[in-house]
## 1
Amino acid sequence: MKRVQFRRPIFPFLLLIPQLAIIAVFFYWPAGEAIRGSFYLEDPFGFSSTYVGMDNYTDTVTGSEYVSVAKFTLGFTAVVAFFSLALALLLAVKADSVLRGAKTYRTLLMWVYAIAPPVAGLFGILLFDQAIGPFTKIAQSIGWDFKLGVNYWDSATAMVIVAVWKQIPINFIFFLAGMQSVPMAVREAALIDDPSGPSRFFHVIFPLLAPTAFFLLIINITYALFDTFGIIDILHKGEPGNNPVTLVYKVYLDGFRGNDLGGSSAQSVILMVLVLILTVVQFRFMERRVHYT
Amino acid sequence: MAQVTISSVNKIYPNGFHAVKDADFHIKDGEFIVLVGPSGCGKSTLLRMFAGLEDISTGEIAIDDRVVNDVDPAQRDIAMVFQNYALYPHMTVYKNMAYGLKRAKKSKEDIEIAVQKVAKMLDLTPLLDRKPSQLSGGQRQRVAMGRAIVRSPKLFLFDEPLSNLDAKLRSQMRIEVRRLQRDLGVTSVYVTHDQVEAMTMADRIVVLNAGKIEQIGTPAQIYQSPASVFVATFMGAPPMNMLEGGFKDGTLTLSGGGVIPHHSHGANGPVSIGIRPEKVTLQAEETPGALPFTYEFTEDLGAVKLVHGLLGGERFIVHTHEEAIIGDDAKFLSIDGGSVHVFDVNTGQRID
Amino acid sequence: MTDITTAIAQPPVRRRKIRWNRVFDHVILILGSMFMLLPVVLTLLTSTWDNVTIHTGGIQYSIGEDAFRNYQKALFEKSGFSQVVDGMKMMTNSLILGLGFAIGKIVISMMAAYAIVYFRFRFATFAFWIVFTTLLLPLEVRILPSYEVVQSLGLLNTYTGLIVPLIASATGTFYFRQFFKSVPEETLEAARIDGAGPIHFFFDILVPVSQTMIAAIFIIMFVYGWNQYLWPTLMTTDENMFTLVRGIKQIMQVWIGANIPDYGVAMALAIIAMTPPVLIVILFQNWFVKGLVESEK
């Protein structure tokens, strides 16, 4: 790490003990339990468990419900990531180009970062509610009989809008920081070489933003998969019924409501593998990124 | 004040890189030694081994007959000035200077006296309450010096301390550092890649190349009788002209034709011939012993001129003050016979 | 000469063209800002009205007269099934969670990052991997077994059980490691020559040098802790342990089946739950943005 380091045989371990202890008890133990549990069938009262091998996995992935939830999660993730990245990029480009009020815009566009997902979900309910929501009224006035919590796709629309709204700030912050780290000399060189603004953006600025964009893509996928739990739970008022849910939500439903511990563990492990792949991709990319900069 | 003995010191990194090879020399009490060489030559590594910031792979370093190989940096009675100054950004100038004394468990009164004294010496008194971020580059450099001096160490170590300053300030500080060192009489080791600093500041210069010591000597020795082609071309600006040639029946001749005056009569065979740009004279007329010169262009530096051309088909630079004989008039060149250097073609070592 | 005069004459013409682009930029930015603001502003406005008005008239676009009643009720009226918890209690719990999480995380991860960056010791690489593997799996994917572990340790409905499992990931350690690596090498070298050992170097030099970074990470972690939802929802069945964010869910459950739901109080509570983290992020946005962007490098 550092060229010069302290050499003490015991001291660094004392520094690491709190972190290692917490990780051992609250990370490695539960993660191990999840893997172990995924191979067992536990009766709902927790009296006995039987080793069932891969049954939990095969039951899970062949279940029609799981497949439809997985499909929805995929679509939801793609749509949320796309719109929150695209809108944030547009706003960052504009915020970077204006001089007047740049700081005010930055504040106005980033503060939603601090709002908890379930609070965002509550705002969603108020806007999309059948009784009081203005969005519902607008939709009805153009002939769209919008019914949050009743119609599958209407609920999905509300989920996407709230999830995108909540995610724009963080993307905006990173895109703006990325834009501002483009050296002035490079912009000036581009200004001399290329008279067209949009062309300058796509040929000079955007390629320099690509590493940021890729990093954000991973962040957004992780967000859509995991951090939208609060939004979904509140939008569905804790009772999803026939409304769309994501894979993480299903882990929670099956484990805590359905008491299907083995199935829930198997789903957890599948998600773990998914995250693992995402992280490996991210690290491999970041390694390469070192060479660019 | 101390003397330092370096005995067959080697530095080999875990990845196998051999950074310092068999360094072996002695530093006298109060001496100012400059380690000079291109980047990556091992000069900083050697200095850091003096400081205890780098392990010594094999060999010994002794300060005043105490072998310090396994002594903690703080216990070696040394002080170091870093290239980027390494001032503690959150501490005032006073605290920066006092920190080492505080860790050495000196009393508050002693620290106050020592810091004030050194601050006065370096004109830092009005700056004592400022933080490093409020200082100019030159002021920071002086604080770094002050932090070193206040500890009244046996040995000063300087790691390119002036390289972050602009040219004008650098030449001022060069003189100031040397004056302080002389007044304090503290043995000093100074690392630089700037040969002007090396020539002007050193009592003795150690020239390093690829981890090996090429030559140790006074600036005059280094300049007048460089031990190798490397030293000859590294020290001096513009560098020494190097020409291909050889001894034939006792006379030194250029490959491109022409006899070079030389005091010795080496064995037959090829050699490298080195001639300093200022040890030749340009002339319009042919005289006995003069060689034909093809003029190309002149760099006018005001006080001096650098005349570029060809000698025996090879690039040759002449350092001259003459107004008259430049331009296409410069058709011949006569060489001062006492200042021709001859080196082995293969080893690059000096042949006398 | 002619070239120069035309060049001088041109700018006013060009400036007018650029101005339209600028107006367009501002329009987009204002629309974006409104998109971000609108849901919160509407909620804020509606939270000042009485339930009947909201129920019959929907979202309100002006300030009503029931602000005091709604916020008073949200903050001080005992609610829930057991009628023991009010908004103030939930806010206290949120503060404990946010502060406990942020401080615990910073202390633990600074210590670990210090060991990893500044010490040479056996098993250093192994320790590094043990710690950083935790970045791979968010709490959400191991939520059920985590719950069981906390349950078997008897930590349900305790602050320890609420806070400590959330700390069990290396994000903070990763941030501090990145930051420590960016501290110049010479800082440690100068300190060692000055005679500072590991403890003095840490407290005299490294902690003061890291102040901005600590502040930034504190903000990020406080917001993260305050906004936790899934874990508190599972962990706390005792209403005395509810946080504000957890309380939102409680409101939703009371809401279902109510004749006229208590919209005003629900919205007031949502506004109360978001205000502290939002204020911190806005007030300290320079630190916050710096910490967020730098730590991902």
## 2
Amino acid sequence: MTTKSKKHGNVLLKMRDIWIEGFADEKWNRIIRGMDLTLHRGEVLGLIGESGAGKSTLGLAAMGFTQPGCRITQGSIDFDGIELTEISEGMLRSLWGTRMTYVAQSAAVSFNPAHRLIDQTTRSAIRARVMGEKQAKDDARELYSTLQLPDPDNIGDRYPHQVSGGQLQRCMTAMAMSPRPDLIIFDEPTTALDVTTQVEVLAAMRKIVDEFNTAAIYITHDLAVVAQMADNIKVMRYGREIEESATRKMLSHPEMEYTKSLWSVRSLSKEEEKGKDAILDICGVDAAYGANKVLHDINISVPRGKTVSLVGESGSGKSTTARVVTGLLPLTSGEVLFEGEALPPKLSDRSKEQKRRIQKIYQMADTAMNPRQTVGEIIGRPLEFYLGHTGRKQEARVIEYLEMIELDESFFDRLPSELSGGQKQRICIARALAANPDLIICDEVTSALDQIVQEGILKLLMRLQRELGITYIFITHDISTVRAISDEVVVMFEGQVVEQGLKSEIFSPPHPDYTQLLLSSVPEMDPDWLDNHMASRRSG
Amino acid sequence: MHPVVKTVLHRLALGVVTLFVVSVVIFTAVQLLPGDFGEAVLGQAATEETKAAFRRELGLDKPAVLRYFDWLGGVLTGDFGTSFSGRAASGVDRSREVADLIAPRLWNTLFLACYAAVIAVPLALIMGITTALWRNSIYDGVANASALTTISFPEFFVAYILILLLASLNPVFPSLANVDSSISFWDRVYTLALPALTLTLVIVAHMMRMTRAAIINLLASPYIQMARLSGAPPREVILKHALPNAWAPIATVIAFNLAYLVVGVVVVEVVFVYPGVGQLMVDAVTSRDIPVVQACAMIFAATYIMLNLIADIIGIVTNPRLLHPR
């Protein structure tokens, strides 16, 4: 029943010695450097690597497609006997949407907002005359039903903005399956989804690929996800292949150092400690955006010098809680106590000292920094504003902070655009540290980063806590990060606190229903996990 | 109530408010015009008594606020007042109702505007869509360059060139467009060919380039890449996937240009000696004929507001998020 046991047919796709270049910064840069790829009928191949590894570029090249500004300079792509690099765009188009289809990362922006879902689902099949209109629409409704979309007979009459992200992603899978292609490219299809939604979408995609024995290339940076989907895994870095082998073997015995390092990220851990006195108490807080009440009676206690993680799906009120604590969103009732003293709800009513002691780090380091200021100015600003350091003294302090975040003084005059994603986030950390705060709120600070970079940032945060005794409120939807760094955990759902406790308490049964669902939805590095999970869900 | 109806009503109400504010601005601005109408008509030699009597007849002796509300009340009931020129105090009462003065001129202006729009809007849309479809081709280059050329010249220059080419060197169309109400529809169309052509050349470039830009702007969207990857040929990508999402900016720029056709064509009117509202207003300003100036300004303001309102509404009803709420 699982993909792992099925027999694969003959070779469907053979890519040999592919070189692809992209035009950026006034020159052609190599994106793919001599990759080979072989895919059999009915096989699912996982393509995995960090961002910038060239996964998507290679996946699109498998369809003979290159993004605007890219070109295939060398190599052959043989799709079922057709050499894709030699045929015309018109010939390629006759394959696209019929024999090979594509599932994009973010269904929310990949569906045309102006058309109904069912029209978009069936358009390729109807255009290519694979089926008549009525037949295609009936078939689409059946696919919706197979993918367990609610109200499959009518959901297609809706517009993209009228259904949820997870439902859209399943609709897109239906769209890809509608013409019964030989090959589907899944390009990070679940990355934008919450874990609880991700499980359902994964199961639906697996089911449909199994059912029609379609070959697929599954692109992702998430190991646990690819373990559920793929028969074979290919690891990529800098446009080159690192290694490829069967999923089970790859998970248990990766050969190359780089692959091992990818695997090892999840081993980061920290002993939990119970805190003594609370530095911050959120007592019975309600908050609202306009008339829309989003926080209901939130009670959270944050012990001094410890890490409290807020977890939950998007829309559960994690970030809103942070906005209330910082005063960006004034609470409507309840109070926030900082060292036993109530903070004024509005930021503008708080004293400079109160502002200084609570700092925040954001998810998108890119947008949290002024692109025209140098690193020295960015870190120097809180030094001057809160502590009055100027001139030489400020410069010396900035360099101290640069060293503290494991960078050196050569970064002083750089602009944010000259930094990597991980370095940018480090600068944001230094900026928060420069105010010499007691509490730092980290809002999804590692979500936009690759696994290895994430590990570096998390280690840095943990070291700073040990050395400086800073308290963290750590907001994330990533359970493995929570396991790695928390002392206490707060689970949130729909603007309410489900439970708060020490990490060991929260992660060991018995759980409230929602915590159970959330924890069990996190994919594990076990190829059988999805089957077992879905089986236990059905029986439960 | 459907949210679209609600939004449209909301916009309508805003339009009315804007028009009210504009009426205040117009009235104030006209008050600020230098010089005195009495003196302008009666000459500097007129005695103080004559001037005072004249002012009394025109109601200019009343305070400005009172006059404003008199005027506003009139406008609201469709009465724009009586023209200042040809009043009794200047000898014989030959004055005319402002509405009677403006009506035939307005009809002329609207006719010419519609004439130009009927040619220009479809032409601009077709050129915009085709240049987006065959972007960076020779056709695209030629279309863009020629559109830019025509928009770069002042309109009177374009008008004179057209007269030179199509009325003087090759006498195809008449160079004067002095029509009156007796002329038949098709004769009117023939007589107005050159002014309409001039206006078309002046406004096509703007609309065409905006259409092209609005469509090309969307071509980088993920759903356009998705459409291409589902095998859609370029024609389908542009017409079915990009265009439906591009109507809002296109409608805005079309509304802007249509408003120009009603409001800003005085230069073209002068070149072709065409009796439109623009000329009337310029004459009225020169002779300090305040009721006519105010009425023309109100008509122009209302045109702008109405056309922009329509563009807004098009933007709303072509947005499925607003048309089909969750």
